[in-house]
Design a protein that fits this description.
By secondary structure, this protein is an alpha+beta fold. It has one domain. Helix content is about 30%, strand content about 25%. The chain is built from 4 helices and 6 strands; from the N terminus they run E-E-H-E-E-E-H-H-H-E. Helix 1 links the parallel strand 2 and strand 3. The longest helix has 17 residues. The radius of gyration is 14 Å and the shape is globular. It starts with a strand and ends with a strand.
């Protein structure tokens, strides 16, 4: 069964590298993120693609599994705040404003493209998590695609 990813980072030849799911809900926790991923793994077989990372993002938190082949119950090995990322792309956003999902998608797409291009700030919590995970090293020449079937 195919899955409509909110965003995907693809290699130069079109092979999926990162599947990105946007869930912009307040208070997204590590356990809830794992539950969301588990449901996607069970419903769509995402764990059957061992070379593909999975990124779950809200405007508050990001959760990264660098090996999608990890079991459905796996907790995210990388968790990071997204406030600095949102602030970079939306510097005049009122502090209590909650982004709509398509607004968050624009921020995440630009951030991922900047990571690929080498212009994203890696000293932020999100940047450090991506670098520490080893994912950053695999992004050379990749491209960001929105709403794609995987």
């Amino acid at each position: 069964m195919s899955f409509l990813a909110d965003v995907m980072v693809a290699s130069p030849n079109g092979r999926p590298l990162v599947i990105v799911e946007l869930r912009n809900r307040a208070g997204l926790t590590r356990d809830l993120a794992a539950s969301i991923r588990r449901n996607l793994v069970e419903d769509y077989g995402l764990a059957e693609t061992p070379d593909v990372s999975f990124l779950l993002v809200s405007q508050e938190r990001g959760f990264l599994w660098t090996t999608a082949g990890a079991g459905p119950e796996a907790l995210p090995p990388h968790e990071f705040g997204m406030a600095e990322v949102v602030e970079r792309y939306l510097p005049n956003l009122p502090p209590d404003y909650w982004l709509r999902e398509h607004e968050l998608e624009l921020v995440v797409v630009q951030w991922l493209q900047d990571l690929i291009d080498g212009t994203a700030e890696l000293h932020t919590a999100a940047g450090r998590a991506i670098a520490d995970s080893g994912l950053f090293d695999s992004l050379g020449g990749a491209r960001v695609i929105e709403e794609v079937r995987v």
